[in-house]
Amino acid sequence: MEKSAIWAVGLCLVLGGHGFEAEASYQSKPTEQPYRTAYHFQPPKNWMNDPNGPMYFNGVYHFFYQYNPYSALWGNLTWGHSISYDLVNWVHIEHALNPTDPFDINGVYSGSATILPEGGPVILYTGLDSKSRELQNLAVPKNVSDPLLREWIKSPHNPLMTATNGIDEYNFRDPTTAWQGPDKAWRILVGGLINGRGAVLLYRSRDFVNWTMSQTPFHLSNKPGMWECPDFYPVGISSKDGIETPVQNADTKHVLKISFQDNGNDYYIIGKYVPETDTYLVETDFLDEVSDSRYDYGIFYASKTFFDAAKKRRILWAWIKESDSLSAAVEKGWSGIQSIPRSVLLDQTGRRLVQWPIKEIEELRENQVTFFNKELRGGTVIEVPGSITASQADVEVSFDFPHFKEAEVLDPSWVDPQLLCSQKNASVKGGIGPFGLLVLASKDLTEQTAIFFHIFATHNEKYIVLMCSDQSRSSLRQDIDKTSYGAFVDIDPLHEKISLRSLIDHSIVESFGGEGRTCITARVYPELAINEEAHLYVFNNGTQSVKISRFDAWSMKKAEMVQRIEEDSQFMSS
After folding, report:
1. d(Cα 335, Cα 320) in Å, to the nearest integer?
2. φ, ψ dihedrals at 175, nearest 5°
3. Which of 35, 165, 342, 369 lies in the 20 to 30 Å Cα band around 543?
4. Helix/strand/coil for 330
């Protein structure tokens, strides 16, 4: 039996056990919604932003998210709630948390889930009171034996934490998943602002209700700006598995991630956590000159991880905002999608994280096209043959090089990869590169989004690999952001092939360079290259030929999304 069929049967069993029925619904034609995704998570309509409290509990994946039930614009924030058995196909169920109480009347903001050893899952979240002060609150399932966890009850002790000791009460939010220390007390981190500087604050509790703030911040910025959506978790130094949050030993390092509100990017640092003293030791700090570690160098924000105990892996989600106008969001009737869930591991150097789309997404692949050892001469553009649906595809390609004689010398002043990608975009001829993919491209290439590499030589006979996502020609529309993104890839082309994987889904392109060492996500809104009119090409605009060692591409089937109709307790597919 196909996995989609198994999923449907399992869904019917769960829903049927709760007196729900399912029925087919009207689905809008693709031409009416050319930018709506087919296999990325998004609710049927309205605004969505931060991922909240993802977890795996009793055989079910739960995903919560910031949601506006009334509009495609930001506001009226509640916690949407969806469940899945495979992180690909989803059921949208009742909202988990609504802004109905004095401690969250102006919005139920972001937070996290923790699964207690005795008692099951709990949620800590930020609420805005009537004066828009930010408070930390607790919610628990009404019935922990309900496999859907449909109803949540807010604690009578709310708010549990308020801003004190110089913390800005309007910038105090986003509690993390909790962990226990050697003394069995629980710890969490909360983002804050102290004297205009970002801070990560540590709180301890023995009963998950009464929390005490540490006298010193867990980590403090020396630069201005709010730190929000903190995340903190262990990674194995030489492990191929993810690690659960409470684990601390000699074989682990710890990742601290912060979402920088001022520039809209997620940064992480890797260090050593000392649980006995709750100190965090790092060699390089956020935004140091020698470190610019981000999960993703494109559009990727407010990310959140969770430990998937079923498959012993850590899974990363992030909000991918729109790059078109507010009026376009209203016209579409929706705004915001989530990234494809990614597994996260520490690379062999111990300095960076490696991300890769979860294995389950490959179940959507069909109509494969494969070829090997094809020379791609300078100035060449080749359309990918076969029956690939280019607007809804998964592409993997690796490149090899006969020599590096024509590599341009990297100017020492070229330290900003994003600026370099803008200056040396896909249309600028180089030595080795630009070469890569043209996705969501029109037949005449009037519209195209280029994901490419460019290899430069240094003065010490080494080579630097630049990865770019060039949206400058992505659309004829003028009301969208066409910023190009870029980053250097930590790879030595002398000893390994350069690989690229791109997930293409109508208005989003997620790209993974160097087997996930560098990731770039872009939003794209073509006018011509939509649905069946989209094309896929490989190209080389350098003077030196490159060899395509292997090329694989698949069309991607539509993921199943089932929407509950609250009025009559039925479900509909979307």
Report:
1. 9
2. -65, 145
3. 369
4. helix
pLDDT 10s digits, 114-145: 999 988 999 999 999 999 999 999 999 999 99
DSSP 189-234: EEEEEETTEEEEEEEEESSSSS-EE-SS-SEEEEEES-EEEEEEEE
Q: How far apart are CA 441 and CA 301, in angstroms?
A: 26
Cα–Cα distance for residue pair 531/394, rounded to 1 Å: 15
How far is residue 426 CA from its own chain's centroid?
Answer: 26
Identify residue 319 by its one-letter amino acid code.
Answer: W
Rounded CA gap, 112 and 154, in Å? 14
The structure tokens listed for 284 are 């390089």
**Alpha carbons 181 and 273: distance in angstroms, whole number:** 11
Residue with the two structure tokens 């969250």: 104
Mean pLDDT, rounded, of the chain: 92
| Active-site residue list | 50
- Rounded CA-CA distance 126/109 in Å is 5
Let me know: does 66 contact 52? Beta carbons within 8 Å: yes
pTM of full prediction above 0.90: yes
Q: Is the dihedral of CA 357, 361, 367, 372 positive or negative?
A: positive
The one-letter amino acid at 166: G
- Is the peptide bond between 217 and the residue preceding it cis, with omega within 30 degrees of 0? no
Predicted confidence (pLDDT) at residue 108 exceeds the cutoff of 70: yes
- The mean pLDDT of 362-374, rounded to a whole number, is 97
Size (the chain), residues: 574
**Closest listed residue to residue 545, CA positions, set 435, 397, 408:** 435
CB 193, CB 174: distance < 8 Å: no
Q: How many angstroms separate the CA atoms of 199 and 214, rounded?
A: 12
Which contiguous run of DSSP H or E holds residue 462?
A: none
By C-alpha distance, which of 492, 493, 490, 445 is closest to 470? 445
CA distance to 27, 40, 46, 163, 469, per residue, from 525 (Å): 21, 16, 18, 42, 14
Which residue type sits at 236?
Answer: G
The CA angle 207-79-208, to the nearest 5 degrees, is 5
SS3 state at 19: coil
Tell me: the pLDDT tens digits for 28-54?
444 589 999 999 999 999 999 999 999
How far is the C-alpha of 55 from the C-alpha of 83, rounded, in Å? 10
Report the C-alpha gap between 59 and 181 in whole angstroms: 27
Residue 250 backbone zone (phi > 0: left; psi -120 to 50: alpha; other: beta): alpha
Q: What angle (nearest 5°) sits at the alpha carbon of residue 290, between those of residues 288 and 295?
A: 75
- Asked whether the bond before 434 is cis by omega within 30 degrees of 0, the reply is yes
